[in-house]
Design goal:
The chain is of the alpha+beta class and 671 residues long. The protein is built from 20 helices and 22 strands. Helix 1 packs parallel to helix 2, helix 5 crosses helix 7 and helix 12 packs parallel to helix 15.
Length: 671
């Protein structure tokens, strides 16, 4: 099978030919990137570039395919249908429809972010990897389970590449800013910037603003660039390790254009070596936006009969990776790896005294106590690493005690050594909640978080790995009265487990304990409280086959004692995640088709003449040289290009062309 891939999500017009009988090294890729003179990517200018680049790159790869394979060299056309910039996606989609229609071959619509993952899986040979996608507009962690790639963690505001580009635009540097920051960072030294990790989610908006402020206040470009990289990439590496720990996986893939950065790859390699995992980053040509990865995934989808009729091949600029049915892996029954693996998961208890490795610490179990050491992370800058380890150790001790005072079962803190970031704590429970998750226990977590929030702080990382479960008789407190904290004696003498007479409990006869408050902090803000709930829901949704009963019970538990405003804000946060807003523009396009109105979407200039691609039998197949000319002829007849997504109302166009296209597509417009 030979697949022609077309990529056009944002800045690169790209086409590729992939023969499934060969390996990915033989993929022929032609790309024409958009490089603005100043500033970042402007959607209108990117679309202008895309309309010029697309015919040329397609002509080139078609000519190569014809020279290599002879007449009719293409069996499948695959294109990037989202996510990305709407103006660019529409041009790529139009070219793909025109080509598939004229060659009379099947059409495949590919999710751009899943393509980044699949090219890495293809070149690495990994079976069940965690994938860190780090690109301009995106940053998220994906893991496969039960027919879909689940989002384990993601940015809550901007993509990592956009965060860097925002800073470089302030400096007046042209796009792309990442390579320029990497060069300048080579001569820089460390300065403090914000470091925001919330479970496996993260935020980049604050660090970009702080970097701009630091530069404006007199810090050197080199120092700011060095520190920006150190903070951003350490955050990505930390959440990647948390995802490995949560799932028990031991394979990590890197995808996306930011993955070309040497420092990021160095950090991820170091982290994986430390925990015994395997790391893989594809060749740079497959990391940046390219049609080769579109062709590879297109071939897999076509082999699974996952094609799309031309009339239904609309683009989706907000296409999330977890919306994609993974048809090409339908025969696989294995989910993500068993989190109870003895490879080093914190869910594996041991009485042998051997250290068990978690995401950020090693844990040694004895009969009644646990020694937890936050070990140095070689991938992090030493100054940043020392601060994070010590601050989190102190916070864990303080907030664990505060949670117990609020009626939430927690371990007792027996000793703390801030210099070595070490805690000695009571041993509680017998397994992590990840191995014993039920609606009843999820309800307990919801109720427990409500009490924390009422007391004015958040847990910060309430995943199923940070709740311990056991019977009430499992691992009682030490008999030594000197080991008990004074606040326990004063406030919670009523319960032998140290949780207090009014502690929340599970309804099934078991006891659950919240542990590891190292990412917590004092706050009364509804946004912070809602993020706590979001982190727990993310850890369940990414690892459980049927999360709905679990999450319903969790929210019921929170509702019992928590503020309704927090649950309301939780809904807003979930809708705010990457691309989770309603696809209003697309819905309007279809709902207003019958009336002939088109109030809120502009028709890009590359919308194809329906007489050309619907009544394709009336024309001959274009030769490789003739395809670009034919596409340009069609564009000359189309309305002028509008603007970007945000100013589409001002740039709307509507004419007789819309009605003609609507009729020929059965009432729907492939946008």
């Amino acid at each position: 099978m030979r697949v022609l891939g077309i990529e056009g999500t944002a800045w690169a017009g790209s086409a590729a030919v992939y023969d499934t009988e060969t390996d990915t090294d033989a993929i022929h890729i032609e790309s024409d990137p958009y490089e603005p003179d100043t500033g970042g990517i402007h959607p209108r200018e990117a679309a202008e570039h895309m309309s010029e680049a697309m015919p040329q790159v397609i002509e080139t790869v078609l000519r190569t395919a014809t020279d290599t394979y002879g007449p009719d060299p293409i069996d499948i056309v695959a294109f990037s249908c989202g996510p990305g910039l709407g103006p660019c996606l529409r041009i790529a989609g139009t070219a793909a429809r025109a080509l598939a229609g004229s060659l009379e071959v099947p059409l495949v619509g590919v999710n751009h972010m899943i393509a980044h993952l699949e090219i890495g899986r293809d070149t690495s040979g990994f079976s069940q990897p965690i994938c860190l996608n780090a690109s301009g507009a995106n940053a998220h962690l994906l893991g496969y389970r039960d027919g879909r790639y689940r989002v384990l963690g993601e940015t809550m505001d901007t993509g990592v590449g956009n965060a860097i580009d925002k800073f470089t635009r302030h400096l007046g540097w042209s796009h792309p800013g990442g390579p320029k920051v990497e060069t300048a960072a080579a001569d820089g030294e460390f300065i403090e910037l914000p470091y925001v990790v919330k479970g496996m989610d993260f935020s980049f908006a604050g660090i970009t603003s702080a970097a701009i402020e630091a530069y404006d206040s007199g810090a050197t470009i080199e120092d700011v660039c060095f520190s920006l990289q150190e903070h951003l990439f350490a955050m990505l590496t930390e959440v990647a390790e948390r995802a490995l720990s949560l799932t028990g996986a031991d394979e990590l893939l890197l995808g996306g254009g930011v993955g070309q950065n040497d420092r990021l790859r160095e950090m991820l390699t170091s982290m994986c070596e430390e925990r015994g995992a395997v790391f893989h980053a594809p060749a740079p040509r497959f990391l940046r936006d390219n049609a080769g990865m579109i062709a590879v995934l297109g071939a897999k989808m076509a082999a699974a009969d996952d094609t799309v009729p031309i009339a239904e091949s609309s683009i989706d600029s907000k296409f999330r990776p977890d919306q994609v049915p993974v048809s090409w892996r339908a025969g696989e029954s294995a989910p993500m790896p068993d989190p109870r693996s003895e490879r080093g998961s914190p869910g594996f208890d041991s009485d042998s005294g051997a250290a068990v490795r978690g995401a950020e610490a090693t844990v040694e179990f004895s009969k009644n106590r646990v020694i937890k050491r936050r070990i140095p992370k070689p991938y992090r800058d030493p100054t940043l690493d020392e601060r994070l380890r010590q601050d989190r150790t102190v916070l864990e001790a303080r907030l664990t005690a505060a949670a117990r005072r609020a009626g939430v079962p927690t371990p007792l803190i027996h000793d703390i050594d801030t210099a070595t970031a070490t805690l000695v704590v009571q041993r509680v429970g017998s397994v992590d909640l990840a191995e014993a998750l039920t609606p009843t226990r999820a309800r307990f977590v919801g109720q427990a978080l409500a009490r924390l929030h009422d007391a004015g702080f958040v847990h910060g990382d309430p995943t199923t790995r940070n709740v311990r479960v056991g019977s009430r008789r499992d691992f009682p407190p030490d008999s030594d009265p000197n080991s008990e904290s004074s606040d326990r004696k004063a406030s919670h003498a009523g319960n032998s487990d140290g949780s207090g007479t009014d502690a929340v409990t599970c309804d099934d006869g078991t006891r659950a304990y919240l542990i590891d408050f190292g990412l917590g902090y004092h706050t009364s803000h509804v946004e912070d409280h809602a993020m706590d709930l979001h982190v727990f829901k993310g850890s369940v949704g990414g690892t459980v086959s049927d999360p709905v009963p679990i999450l319903d019970a969790f929210e019921t538990g929170y509702q019992k004692e928590g503020a309704g405003s927090v649950l309301d804000r939780l809904g807003e946060i979930e809708d705010r995640g990457r691309y989770l807003w309603l696809r209003t523009a697309e819905k309007i396009a279809y709902s207003t088709a019958d009336s002939g109105e088109y109030p809120e979407m502009w028709i890009p200039r590359c919308v194809t003449d329906p007489e050309w691609w619907v009544h394709r039998g009336s024309i001959s197949r274009p030769s490789p040289d003739g395809f670009g000319a034919e596409l340009r002829r069609i564009e000359e007849k189309a309305p002028p290009v509008g603007g970007n997504e945000s100013d589409s109302r001002e740039n709307s166009v509507a004419d007789d062309r819309f009605e003609s296209i609507r009729k020929h597509t059965g009432g729907g417009l492939p946008v």
